[in-house]
Amino acid sequence: MQRHSILVLFISIFCCFLAGFSQTQLSGKITDKQSGELLMDVRVALLSVPDSSVVKVAMSNEDGVYTLTDLTPGIYILKVTSLEYSDQVKRIDLPSGNAVMDFVMRTDTKLLEEVTVEAKAIRVEQKGDTTQYNADAYKTNPDATVQDLITKMPGITIENGVVKAQGEQITKVMIDGQEFFGDDANTALKNLPAEIVSKIQVYDQASDQAKFTGISDGNEAKALNIVTKPGKNQGQFGKIYAGYGYPNNLYMAGANVNFFNGSRRISLVGMSNNVNQQNFSTDDILGVTGSSGNQGRSGGGPGPGGRGGFGGGDNENYLVSQQNGVSTTHAIGLNYTDKWGKNTKVTGSYFFNGSRTDNSQITSRNYVLSATAGQHYAEDFSAIMKNANHRLNFKFDIALDSMNSLVITPKLSYQGNDRTQGTNGTTVDASQALINSIDNNTFSNNKGINASNSILWRHRFVKPKRTFSANLTGTYTNRKGNSGQESYSHYYDELGQDSLAAINQKADNRTNGYGISGRFSYTEPLSKNWVGEVLYAPSYTVDNADKRTYARDSLTGAYSMMDTSLSNVFDNQTIVQEGGVNARYQKNKTNFQIGVSYQNSLLLNVQDFPIDRDVRLAFNSILPNARFRYEFTKSKNLMLAYRAGTRNPTIDQLQNVIDNSNPLSLSSGNPDLKQQYNHRVFGRFNATNLQKATNFNVFFGGEMNSNYITTSSVIATSDTVVDGGITLQRGAQYRKPINLNGSWNARTTISYGLPLTKLKLNLNFYVGGAYTVLPGLINNVVNESKTTNTNGGLIISSNISETMDFTVGYTINYNSVVNTRQNVSRNEYFIHNINARFNWIIKGRLVINSNYSMNAYAGLGSGYNQTIMLWNGGIGYKLLKNKQLELRVSVFDILNNNNSITRNVTASYIEDVESNVLNRYYMFTVTYNIRNFGKAPATTKAQQPETGDKPQPH
């Protein structure tokens, strides 16, 4: 009753703002010059003449209509901006009463010659909450990719293959505002040429429903939009290449070809090679190629675990980057963007990739707990993995009429994975006496499918800002597979006597589920500056898991003896009801949102085999949220946000069946897991100086969790029985997920960029830090793993010409880990990286390339404190009249020094892992560049502020 009273009081407060009358109003329609289409989400800002400060801001609605109310008659500057169009700036004389001024937006074209010269000095600028980089201010060679271009831009970094902007990961890449290969950022950045880029825009992309309502729903994604140059967005462009290498019959071949014609854009990408090249991400719906892909190894230690996440969204992403080992890869993809008739926009993509990865690793692990101090584990691991992946994405944006629209987003993914692996490991104590040894061989064959469809209906009423929208999403998952294992484990007592545990088994595993969720939103203008929202978000999901394990019958040789301790049938149902209210305030330079939701979650867990067991858990949560944005000037702004959320345990975490794929490290689920509750806060400050061409960014964020899903581990110092009958031999481990409080983290990144004009260089640097506390349970005692990370980097890139292009960078990572249950105080290690890239085109035809990277490790174990230098180089020559054909000879790993080293630190051990890599080889490559661009649109006069423009009275 008390909660209901709070909600009623909250709504009543909003009603206090139901007042306000505008004496002067300016409105109008905004359309696309080429198509005549009404444009939504165009920013219209009324600026003061003396200092260009913001007086009033409005966004155009779905009908292309903007409205500025409560104005005072007088002289103003009116600025109209949109991501895909040229800015329009007019000086207006605003009369009293209602006035109308329409705008026709033109695709971003070149300005007058003298204005263009000035614009090239502008490296980066702020447009509202969008950071916009001018590509012409960063010189690259004609063969550069978009990824080569963005690495020169301040605040954008690439860390272990992950693109980040202002410290946040880029999860969507758009081209002229349209999606490109779904959520796979790598495909766009590594395949598109830099020469087509006019601008790079970085911003928080709201969900389609939040764009419509104007109220954040917490489902923002960090997006990078590529604005193409006039004339470079018409025609055909791309490249086709093929190469042969020595030794070992190495090869590489591929193509990326783009057909752009107005609103219709078709892109084809493909590649085939055995030299470990992968210009895309893998959709790992089975969880076998990402961080969980080594579950069969004994590397799955007892450190705190559990994935982070926030409730309230359905945009789970399974994309992972390239994994360890040497891969042979085949891939092909198609992206399609078009406009069907006047009312339907379509984007879609299909991508297939198949790969075989050979992975060999050597692991050295030292245990640091008091009870296990001095123990050392050494392992040789090898695996062959074959993976096939299909993914299909579409989006249909349909304008039914002036008041109604539909957005339909179907997605389909398939993955098949076959894996064989072998592990040989030994554990010794401080006196080098054997504790255990293992010879473990496993195989698995798995396949899975994920399907979903989202339908969003948006209705706009006659009254401005009054809207209703309904978003329904359905999901379906199906995973099935089989696995086999043959292992021999030796366990030694204090006298050196050993006992043998042999396993010969096969298992069938099936998991499937479905779900439906909705989000219903009604918005109402509460006053001239306030908009309120009432929302209701229900969801219902069902997951079923069935694992049957069979031991080999020594008499018949058949796998017919069911092992009930390793078999389980488990069902989970989750029902969530959520309702709440939000309110958004917008006036002049200030925009903020505040809201609260009430959520009831019901988890029903039913075990049908080998014993019947039911668990029913209910959770009630209050979920507040707030978002504040202030625009100090048009080039300086601050954003702060807070949101509470929940996360329910997955079926894999709930199913309490023993996984003995590694007999030295057993694991199980936990049907008694509770819902995780989290608080998240983050902020961002951006400032640009157009005169000095500098850019300054600060990002900070933090998270605190209650009932954090982590890991309970038991490490047997002698033969032990745990969890109701599970026998652990000396030196073995048992892990399962549990809930603990005390998890939190904080991080920040500060970046600054400036041009060294006289030297024709760009200088960018950043510093960052993070602190994380993760609780875990080890032998029934709570351990806190406290990790401190400090990092920084300096990047110098050339801005000399397109014929000479280089980038030099240095980064440092310092890591310190303290575990409260360790007998050592602190573990510290450093990773230094120096990288340099050089490209030189001599007399337009001779091309010299060189790439150098040095990684220096300090603080690792014996034999792992190495300095690894990777130097690649090549020389090529361009042929034909337009220099479209290139012949090239390249050398990979000139110094024959390539290596891969990783350090993993958990609460109970520290390990260093060395993986196999490709070493020196030679490659001869033939590349044909396709450049058949259409003519650029006619140059138009720059939109300078003008006098005498007077809105028409209405």
Question: Can you put this structure into words, describing what you see?
Answer:
The chain is mostly beta strands and 954 residues long. Helices cover 5% and strands 62% of the residues. The strands form seven sheets. The protein has a 33-stranded mixed sheet that branches. Strands 9-10-16-17-14-15 form a six-stranded mixed sheet, with helices on one face. The two termini are 51 Å apart. 36% of the residues are buried. The model is unreliable at 1-22, 110-120, 291-317 and 936-948 (pLDDT under 50).
Put the structure in a nutshell.
The protein is mainly beta. It has 6 helices and 55 strands.
What's the total helix number? 6
Count of beta strands = 55
Low-confidence stretches: 1-22, 110-120, 291-317, 936-948
Cα-based radius of gyration, to the nearest Å:
30 Å
Largest sheet report: 33 strands, mixed
Write the layout of secondary structure elements.
Layout: H1 2-15, E1 24-32, E2 43-48, E3 54-59, E4 65-68, E5 74-82, E6 85-94, E7 97-100, E8 103-105, H2 113-120, E9 124-127, E10 130-134, H3 146-150, E11 156-159, E12 162-165, E13 168-169, E14 172-175, E15 178-179, H4 185-191, E16 197-205, H5 208-213, E17 221-228, E18 235-246, E19 250-261, E20 264-273, E21 282-283, E22 319-320, E23 326-340, E24 344-367, E25 376-399, E26 404-428, E27 434-460, E28 467-492, E29 498-525, E30 530-536, E31 539-552, E32 559-562, E33 568-587, E34 590-609, E35 613-633, E36 636-647, H6 651-654, E37 665-667, E38 676-689, E39 694-706, E40 708-715, E41 720-722, E42 726-728, E43 733-740, E44 743-756, E45 761-778, E46 781-798, E47 804-819, E48 827-842, E49 846-858, E50 867-879, E51 885-892, E52 900-905, E53 909-915, E54 921-933, E55 952-953
